[in-house]
Amino acid sequence: MNLHEQCLLRYLTYPDELSYATEILKINNKILEQKFVVKNILANISLLNYTEEVK
Question: What is the pLDDT of residue 28?
Fold first, then answer.
């Protein structure tokens, strides 16, 4: 069971805690976004800088 399924199950079990489950999902999405940036964008920038010719 992934985090989204766990949050949905928690919401269905305890509907009063919707804000708590929503905050967990927001934090998880922010972490995933940061990992994507580091993995795909920053890694490519450093690769470009490394392979650039010095004149």
Answer: 87
- Measured CA to CA in angstroms, residue 6 lies from 11, 17, 45, 51, 54 at distances of 9, 13, 36, 44, 52
- Give the sign of the dihedral formed by CA 25, CA 27, CA 29, CA 31: negative
Cα–Cα distance measured from residue 11 to residue 18, given in angstroms and rounded to the nearest whole number: 6
Environment class of residue 10 by beta-carbon count within 10 Å: exposed (0-12), middle (13-18) or buried (19+)? Answer: middle
Tokens of 15: 């509907």
For the chain, give the number of residues.
55
Query: pTM higher than 0.70 for the full model?
Result: no
